[in-house]
Amino acid sequence: MLWIRSDARRCARASAVQDPLHLAQLQLKNPGNLTAKQQATLATLKERNLKTARAYQIRLTLQELFQTRSRQEGEAFLKKWYFWATHSRLPPIVAAAKTIKNHWDGVLNGFHSGLTTVG
Asked: Residues in domain Transposase IS204/IS1001/IS1096/IS1165 DDE (predicted)?
């Protein structure tokens, strides 16, 4: 988390954004829930090729797992995402990828059971 904050501070100094924590909070929101101003802020973040921008993109890509239609398709997607995440050299992302690997079958069983945690 420390590298996210320092990366966000660096970006805030280089842009008009005054609150570096604001950038980190924006990355926790889904793109569909962002205002036009927030989308513009994130666009400038992506252009800077920061660690936080890479982490955000990896997170968004993982969400695409839930768009796959079968367990086989989901497993193929997850294998590619896992490789990308573990080779990202971003310690929190690598840790998250390893956690998913430890629960690999449970994640993929969601395709068979159809159960979700969405209320």
From this structure: 22-116
